[in-house]
Amino acid sequence: MNEGSIRPFPRIITDHLVLRRFEERDLKQLLAYRNDPQVERWQGWGTYDEDRGHELIAALTKAEFGVPGEDKSSQVAFELRSSRELVGDAMLQLRAEDPSIAKIGYTIAPEFQRRGLAREGVKALLQYAVPSLSLRSVEAFAVEDNVASISLLESLGFEETSRIAADERRFVLHIVAPG
Q: Which of 5, 43, 87, 126 is 20 to 30 A from 37 in CA distance terms?
């Protein structure tokens, strides 16, 4: 992929979600789920105060989608269509040394979990990102105890490839090129 193929992230509408860029109005809901102990235990990003939340949203509103690099992850907001509430997000990060390989992560607010929203959002993001960014492989990592996340990955065709640590598993979705 070259710099000329980078494009802004479009609004993607699914049955229940709108995938979009973050907006300043997302701050309250972002802070609520990022600071929830049920969410943070899987993510490990620490506490988000209002200043850190504003900084994150400001950076995300300016970020281009699909720029390779460890410090260049693309974050996509998951908005519930029926209420316009932020219910979660997903991160896609392209490897600097090989931008056809990406890493994906996702978060859903606890009150919206177990409704299929994470699967719906991640699937829509992959359906857009794989052809748009010419991805050939997508990695995801899940803590052993996070059964819901492991189930989601497996339902989307990810296969466990290794154990990173005693309690962390690596999954990969291999993309088969059409033809």
A: 126
Residue predicted with more confidence, 177 or 151: 151
**Pair 80, 108: CB distance under 8 Å:** no
CATH number for position 76:
3.40.630.30
**Overall number of domains in the chain:** 1
At residue 6, the pLDDT reads 44
**Residues spanned by the domain of 64:** 3-174
Q: Average pLDDT of 26-42?
A: 83
Interatomic CA distance for residues 176 and 179, integer angstroms: 9
Of 137, 121, 118, 146, which is closest to residue 11 (Cα–Cα)? 121
pLDDT score, position 20: 96
